[in-house]
Amino acid sequence: MPLETSTTYPLTKLRLDGRRWNEMRVFQAQISTNPASSGSSYLAMGNTSIMCSVHGPAEGRRGEASGSAGSGGAVVDVDVNVAGFAGIDRKRRAGGSDRQSTNISTILRSAFQSHLHTYLYPHSTISIHVSVLSSDGSLLAAAINACTLALVDAGIPMPGLLCGCTAGMTGSASTPKDPREDELDPLMDLSLPEEQELPYLTIGTTTMVPVGQNNMDEDEEDGETKVAVLNMDSKVHYTYLDSLVPVAIDGCREIRELMEGVIRGSQRM
Amino acid sequence: MNDRRRVNGPPGGTRPPVFQSGLQSSNPSDRPRRQRQPAELRKIFLKTGLIPSASGSAYLEFEPSASLAANRSNPKSMIPPSSALKLTCTVHGPKPLPRSAAYSPNLVLTTHVKYAPFAARRRKGHVRDSSERDLGVHLETALRGAIIAERWPKSGLDITITILEAEDDRWWGEPPDSHDASWGIMNVLAGCITAASAAIADARIDCLDLVAGGVAAITEDVGASHSGSGRLMLDTDPAEHASILSACVVAYMPARDEITELWLKGDSSKAVLDDGDSRQGHDALIDGAVDAARGSYSVLSEAVKESILNAVAHA
Amino acid sequence: MSNPRQASSASQTPHLSPAELSYLYTSLSLPKGPIRPDGRSPTQFRPLTAETDILPGTNGSARIGFADGTQAIVGVKAEVEKTVLASDILQQDVENDLQAPSDRRDGAESTPSAAAGGHGSWVQMSIEIPGFRDDDALPVFLSEMMRESLVGSVTDAGKGRDTEMAGGLKGRLVINKRWHWRLYIDVLLLSQPLSYPLPLLSLTTHLALLSTKLPKLKSQGEEDPFFDDDWGVAEHLYPRPSPSASATSSQIRPPVTLLVISVGDNVIFDPNREEISVADAVLAISITRNSEGQGLKLLSIRTIDPPSRLTQPGVPNSENLSTMAATGNSDNAAAANPSAGQEEVPGVWRPRRGGIKRSVITELTRTVLKKGGVGEEVLEGLEGVEV
Amino acid sequence: MATSLPSVAIPGQRLGSVAAYAAGPGTHIQQANIYASIAGPVVVDPAPPKTQSKSTLRVSRVIPAPSRGTLSGTSQKPRYNTLPAIDSIVLARVTRVQKRQATVSILVVLDESAANSDPSKSASDNDNVASILTSAANPENHSNTDELRFQALIRKEDVRAVEKDRVVMDEMFRVGDIVRGSVISLGDQSFYYLTTARNDLGVVMARSDAGNMMFPASWKEMRDPVTGVGEPRKVARPF
User: Fold this and answer.
1) Which GO terms describe its cellular component (chain B) (predicted)?
2) Which domains, from first to last, does chain A contain?
3) CB A22 within 8 Å of CB A250
């Protein structure tokens, strides 16, 4: 019988891969990986690894430009491609994209369309190409982070870094939370086996970079955090949302610091 | 890729059942042997202008090998005799490019090669598979070199080939899956090239020359005593050779002595050539394929000429 | 995106003017050796960076990037699969009744069946290129081309040496009579190709296959296979030479496919996009090391449709319509149909017509195959990559 | 010299050297020799007298009609499409009339050689022009084969030579009319450009609102023979 988090966690208080509940997987990232694009990034969260390249802002295709003339801003175009070798079993498919990649690209498109300062680039297209090289959970969150890094590398203005993280519960959490004896813990940054077993959600947050007189004011930072993406496909009793959301937001904050480090550490800055 | 639009036949082979009694009579000596000389080609039937609705068309058929014809008339075993290539080619155009296409100063060539579902031993689906697409690219390369494309600006030419009976990849009496190299496809390509050239000439599209396809292969004899005895054969029928080491198709324009398409695969290093022949195996193989193409050119040119003379006589 | 109708050609139609094409052609066809736009010698390859084993989730993987930013990632995955013969029952009878028709060269193998020799369809290759559908002509053509040389490279002379590789890659995939490995080679091009991507993809595939490992088999004979859980003892798909072996016995390696063009009388390797757009002929030549260790073996040659056939012709001054507006009607007809009227004018671009002379093909293959030639150079370069 | 010429040629066949002949349609030049590029009868067009030019060698796309008069073979003779080239005269059907331009779809490219030479031996590949036209002008016959025909535009300024700025497209063409035009440009990716700015160019066949075939009344009017109602058109001069 395969090990399951819901059975082993209450005993060991450790997850299947040995992490504690609020521990993230190894985070590695790099920007400017592909000189052929305007901006590019490579990001690995555990065994999930993603390459992302950004082209543009460039002149959009004729049909699109006329359609979006009313909006007056750049159009964000996201293309997600999950490599055949990304999963455990090789994925065979008959051309084109599947439901998962279409879903991710839709979420990314709407998130970055509203997040970026698109009004600066009227009648143009920013196209983002995401290649999932290896998928081991938290795919959407990792894709958000990779896109943010690539967009920063491309020099496209945005109010702050958009960071994504997942959070889940250690059990099915289908009954109301009992405040007295609560044996379920929230988990941060789920891996694929955990995603398949447990309810989880993905949150993307953005934090305005403090400017002006607030610049020095470190404490104000939290007050500026906004949730930009919230996606949940699984079922959980609403009382558990209270514990899921803060954990995911905490993860996002952690990732933001890591990503800032990556950006500062790159040679281009 | 599944074809969901049609009711499909069974996915496996469509071979008739072979019974034990039939099998017993089949021994390796029943294997068809090549009765032609190494440089002797099979006869080709080629006729143009058979499809009135197309601007050009051609029908091509290879003569079944002699041994197989004998086998057919006097069957000694239950093993089905090998097939011989039969295909039709239609040319549509020149016609306007679709609205979405970009301006092209040249004739835009599109080639479709499709096996009829019953063409091969194993049923082919209605959706073109990768080998059919691959054939299409080969054919396009072969023809594009011959066509004077700049005389037909802004227009497209569709070349559609339907293979009614494909060449076998091996002798059908051999255990299944004993070979997987698809040598038959090379003969099919050669036939496609010759037929398409005839159909293009029939459609009066400007060409530098008629382009003929030819196949040569390096084969090893049955029961070869020592390895390294590869012999060069022209126009090989895969059913007649137990072991084909390498094969080559060319599309050849005799008037210019030029090759527009070359596809060589396999190990050509073991070819045994005549004494004093210093060519390397692959060069000899290409030369052999060119000789075979010359042979099919003679049929091709006669067929084209005949259709013209017929038209003049009937006009 | 690219026009799928022309996608089968060596790459998209180049966006160069007839004057640029003519200039490029002239400088590449100079009799004293070509002058290439980037200053390389005719046989010099573009610099590249390579790394292997980059993806933990695959059996083998590699990444190669050119300096211009084109990158390819190849992941190899292997799955165990049951060997299905077209007719299992018949198979038994055939083996008993037929005294193994001697259609195999080595008489040692008594059963001439897929179970022993392996099957080419066990190697599956798919290529993803941004802007192309999976079943567009270019990816299909490229994958067939590379697969063909991969499964075709049977190193039959395994005498005493690596018997594991006796049947080539196909033979290596055989586990026992009833089971085999199925190999999926997925090639991922990360950006739209700036030049014909064949060399990039071929080199990357080569490295990925070299780094591919299969778990160590613990079952024996005709048992259902089971494997050692320890990835540390996994065996390479292309076995490494044991340290005890003499230094001369080189490892068996997957084949590589080189792209060669001819321009005028010159032979040019690894053409970039501009160079390929004026090529008279484009050949893809697959080679591998000879099993005897020295020398090279030719595996396959394919012509590739040169994009120069799709270019826009230049108009020589003598035929310029605007300079002869006053002339009569019949002359105009000839001018509108210039290819009939004039021989090639030097310095005026004409789309390439016709095919390749046989002498050119001989010259192209000779340059690749000769001792100390380009083929050896490339293979040596690849052997330098630490896998 | 002419004796060495074959009567019919196939692509790639050497016909003569460029020293003796000029290369015409259906041929190409390779290393100072003229080769056939299509299959067909070889025709030598003698050079116009009193000029220095050589006689032109061409391979005809059409099979020459036999001694005139026999109509038996002509009806089943295959038609070979010739592409519209600059200055070629085409017959086209109007498919759409807009304020600034009319869209037409080209039905027939008239063979220049036939048009110039005496009409009795009009051996053009389009000798069933009449049948094409009547079927095309027939409203029931408006099939969706337009995709298979070359599309062309007649811009407002190309309709007539005089009073260009007073052209009202609706009074020049109606959908379904058959127009004789001359190609002025190969145009862009989708359209050729035609002009009707000559006396012999313009609408040659049209139906009235009542559905009757009209006859030309003047250079800008056609009339319904049944109702007698006139309709404005840019009319081609009848022969």
Assistant:
1) cytoplasmic exosome (RNase complex); nuclear exosome (RNase complex); nucleolus
2) 18-267 (3.30.230.70)
3) yes
User: What is the total count of domains within chain B?
Assistant: 1
Within a domain: residue C71? yes
What are the backbone angles phi and psi of residue D214, rounded to the nearest 5°?
-100, 160
Which member of A35, A90, A129 has the closest CB to residue C184?
A90
Domain interval for residue B117:
38-64+80-313
Set of chain B residues whose Cβ sits within 8 Å of the Cβ of A94: 1-2
Nearest CA distance, C41 vs chain B (angstrom): 27
For A33, which residue in chain C has the nearest alpha carbon?
Answer: C69
pLDDT at position C99, please? 38
The CATH number of residue C142's host domain is 3.30.230.70
pLDDT in tens, A72-95: 788 899 988 888 888 887 776 645
Nearest CA in chain B to A95: B1
Interface contact flag, A79 C191, Cβ < 8 Å:
no
**Residue B174 CB contacts under 8 Å (≥ 6 apart), including other chains:** C101, C103, C112
Any B CB within 8 A of D68 CB: no
Question: For residue B255, what is the domain's CATH number?
Answer: 3.30.230.70
Q: What is the ipTM of this complex?
A: 0.81
- Alpha-carbon separation of residue D107 from B95, B104, C64, D150, D216 (angstroms): 12, 22, 54, 8, 21
Q: How far apart are CA D153 and CA D163, in angstroms?
A: 20
Per-residue pLDDT tens for B196-247? Answer: 999 999 988 989 999 999 999 988 765 544 555 778 889 888 888 878 888 9
Q: Is C343 on the interface with D (CB under 8 A)?
A: yes
Q: Given a contact as 3+ CB pairs under 8 Å, which chains touch A? A: B, C
Chain C (2-41) residues lying within 8 Å, Cβ to Cβ, of chain B: 3, 5-6, 8-9
Q: How many CB atoms lie within 10 A of CB A248?
A: 27
Chain A residues closer than 8 Å to B1 by CB: 94-95
End-to-end, the C-alpha distance of chain B in Å comes to 49
